[in-house]
Amino acid sequence: MTQDSRPFEDIAPYPDSMFHEKMQHLVKEPGFEHAVKWVLPNVDYKEMCDDLLQVRDKDTFQHKIMWPFLEMLASKTTSGLTIEGIDRIDPSKAYTFITNHRDIVLDTSFLNLCFLRSGYPTTQVAIGNNLLIYEWISDLVRLNKSFIVKRDLPKVKALEAAKELSSYIHFTVGEEGQSVWIAERQGRSKDSSDLAQDSLIKMLGLAGDGDFRDNLKEINLLPVSISYEYDPNDYLKAREFLLRRNDPEFKKTQRDDLFAMETGLLQPKGRVHFNVGTPLNPFIDLIPEDADKSQIARDVCDAVDCQIHSGYMIFPINYIAYDKLHGSSQFADRYTSEEEEAFERYIRTQLEKVDIPELTDEDNVFLYEMMLTMYANPLKNKISAETCSSEA
């Protein structure tokens, strides 16, 4: 097979045969240099480029370059990065890890860091083309085992892209034996109420050798729950809610997405925790045989939600936000008055960053309630998930 005829060439990570050529081009990009110096202000850029040009493949890049970088990032911006249930992963098998989605960059970066620490294979990563604002960003992510999700296409083109994406995931998991990561929904959950989308599950079942149920089983779905103690983008999400309330046609700019990526990368996140669930194939087998595609997709979404919600790590701020939002003291025994005061200061400090002129008192109340809602929803959903089966 020639390089030009390799399958999925427009969306797949770059093959190792192209790695050095693409890296040579990347290190000459002024935008890449600017980004590196922004994130690593003390870096010797020439020395770093020399190191990058010694790398010849994606796995070496992740082990030699990305691993130390992510360890530094975790050390500087978190109060600890932990994972639970990793023993439920069989390193000899390939999975489709499906998670809630809070941070544009770090959800999978930190998950892969946990895998690197434990000696597990890293995953290929789905990333929307709306985030590939510059060509060098596209090159960088495809050098780092990412594949492209095409978005905002006309209806016919969108269906073609969905089929291609589904085929690629089936090819990667089934034929190449490599795990992939995909978020349970398009875009981040702005209010932290994580719910899987039926359309995402239906896309995953488009490709395969059997019926819809068997197609889903082919890619070995495994939910993983992600918990951030603090979301550095919380005030930006609250701001977006307000702007959409005032103007339903409001749309974010590319600069908004870039700033959200920068903020998520560099600002404090407190504790970050992953909880690996159980593979969904046994659950899919239990769905009634006469269920149609829509019912199967809905049941799988419910199972994903159940595992993700029950897997949350709940922090004192979640209990505080829940009580404040509901005007209760239901969880007062889970936090101290000092923690409550610190959370209140944190919320006020974050809301001071909202750059909307002439906010009204009503606007400020709305922003405050949205911040509380974001931090209360994980607890609300975990309480609801306590009634669902541990096998779901």
Describe the overall structure.
This protein has 16 helices and seven strands. A seven-stranded mixed beta sheet has the order 1-7-6-2-5-3-4, sandwiched between helices. It starts with 15 loop residues before the first helix and ends in a 7-residue tail after the last helix. Helix content is 53%, strand content 9%. It has helices spanning 16-26, 30-39, 45-52, 58-77, 106-118, 135-143, 155-175, 198-204, 212-218, 234-246, 254-266, 281-286, 293-310, 316-326, 337-351, 361-385; strands spanning 81-84, 96-99, 124-128, 146-149, 180-183, 221-228, 272-276. The mean pLDDT is 93. α6 links the parallel β3 (124-128) and β4 (146-149). It is of the alpha/beta class and 392 residues long.
Low-confidence stretches: none
Structural class: alpha/beta
- Please tell me what the overall shape is: globular
Strand content: 5-15%
- Overall average pLDDT: 93
| Topology order in helix (H) and strand (E) letters | HHHHEEHEHEHEHHEHHEHHHHH
Radius of gyration, in Å, reads 21 Å
Estimate percent helicity.
40-55%
Question: How far apart lie the N and C ends?
Answer: 42 Å
Query: If strands are numbered along the chain, what order do they take across the biggest sheet?
Result: 1-7-6-2-5-3-4
Count of alpha and pi helical runs: 16
Question: What's the total count of β strands?
Answer: 7
Characterize the biggest β-sheet: 7 strands, mixed
